[in-house]
Amino acid sequence: MAVRSDKTGVRNRVAYEVLNNISSVDLLYDERKKQRTVGIYQAERLIARRKDREGWKYFVKWAGYSSFDNTWEPQGHLSPALLRYFEKPDPSQDVVLDCMDSLRREILSCLKRKDLNNEFL
């Protein structure tokens, strides 16, 4: 058992299992303070997953919003494609080749800048 103090200074015992299941996201995010709005929003990506008594919930980064606006959403609120990509990310070969080309260009650009800087030394 661990001991923690609440806001009033009273020391309470806390099971280590509870402490192990808490993430830093839980410490920064309070569901009661979030306003509920109805609508359809585009998710940028899923960041984390946790299971509670209601089922699986996913921590969602919303497109066009700050990371402070991320929310825990139940599995039923998310598209099957988004869930599938989180569980088994499998980029297409075109995406991988584009990334490789971009990386290659950046490496060559850095090497050229390094050569130019060495000439002036």
Automatic annotation (TrEMBL):
Biological source species: Paramuricea clavata (Red gorgonian)
InterPro entries, sorted: Chromo-like_dom_sf, Chromo/chromo_shadow_dom, Chromo_domain, Chromodomain_CS
Main location: nucleus
One GO cellular component term: nucleus
Nucleus listed as a keyword: yes
Protein's cellular compartments: Nucleus
Highest taxon above the source species: Eukaryota
Keywords, in A-Z order: Nucleus
CDD domains for this protein: CD_CSD
Protein name (Swiss-Prot/TrEMBL): Uncharacterized protein
